[in-house]
Amino acid sequence: MSVALLTVAGVALDALLGEPQRRHPLVAFGNMASNLERRLNAGGRGWRSHGVSAWFLAVVPLTLVALVLSWLPYIGWLVDVLALYCAVGLRSLGEHVLPVANALRQGDLEEARRRVGYLVSRETRELDEPAVARAATESVLENGSDAVFAALFWFVVAGAPGVVLYRLSNTLDAMWGYRNERFERFGWCAARIDDVLNYVPARLVALTYALLGKTRLALACWRKQGPLWDSPNAGPVMAAGAGALGVELGGPAVYHGELHERPRLGEGPMADADAIERGWGLVQRGVWLWLLVICLGAYINA
């Protein structure tokens, strides 16, 4: 079965079923990774070598299992589809960001703060309406890249083992990739591998956002503002996305009790509920564009 058909099937399954509500494989993986970290990084004393060992123990065996299962006759294609379905979080992303926009439209700031707290790691208790909208818009742009487009990219490149390798690596980065006393050394490997795996997808996503929005502004923001962000991949994605939407993102935010002076991204008015919804629409249109390109590529190479 062609990669294009398998990709469409995986995305369609996500659209129909959404995120598994029970026994999600990533939840089980997260629990296993937490136990592994407690053993190899007890008290935050693990070194980089411990982090490297933990990454290999967590990711490589499951990637090899996905590789072997994808080779099985008759059911290998089903393994591919299910792997992509479990890795792509398109419908789940919409289910998380749209309630924030709805709460803002209804003037329910407390509910908006509570909802956006599910999406971001910054403190949300004292955010005003523009700050909540800014956080949600940034989240939909960045998570669209990490949870949707990068998964599609690695599935097209390497099938089930590719998307499993990427999604598990990205999950470990989200769990261990912090620059604090506990994870500065132990999480270094997870963070660097995630940076490498996201390098090409992030720039394709930035280009996608630019093509589907205010193209000239998005490209200018990507070029000038992207390099200023502390993440080499989130910077291009969010700068291009902010420019494509014609809004201002970034700026100061409180993480774990510390104020971070982040650069401004984009250009235009402050984000609002409309910006959140337009950001979600940008991600959706981007997925349609990617599926079209994947299918056209398969047709040309047939």
Structure explained in plain terms:
This protein has 302 residues and is mainly α. The chain has one domain (3-301). It is built from 11 helices and 4 strands. It has helices spanning 3-17, 25-40, 48-70, 76-87, 90-105, 109-117, 129-176, 188-212, 215-225, 234-245, 273-301, and strands at residues 248-250, 253-255, 258-260, 264-266. It has a two-stranded antiparallel ribbon. It has a two-stranded antiparallel sheet with strand order 2-3. A hairpin with a 2-residue loop joins strand 2 (253-255) and strand 3 (258-260). The longest helix is centred in the middle third of the chain and has 48 residues, at 129-176.
Give a brief outline of the structure.
Pathway: Cofactor biosynthesis; adenosylcobalamin biosynthesis. With 302 residues, the protein is mostly helical. It has helices at residues 3-17, 25-40, 48-70, 76-87, 90-105, 109-117, 129-176, 188-212, 215-225, 234-245, 273-301, and strands at residues 248-250, 253-255, 258-260, 264-266.
Poorly predicted runs are none
Oligomer: single chain
Task: Report the order of strands and helices.
Answer: HHHHHHHHHHEEEEH
Q: Looking at the structure, what is the overall shape?
A: globular
Pfam families: CobD_Cbib
GO molecular function, one term: threonine-phosphate decarboxylase activity
Subcellular location: Cell membrane
Keywords: Cell membrane, Cobalamin biosynthesis, Membrane, Transmembrane, Transmembrane helix
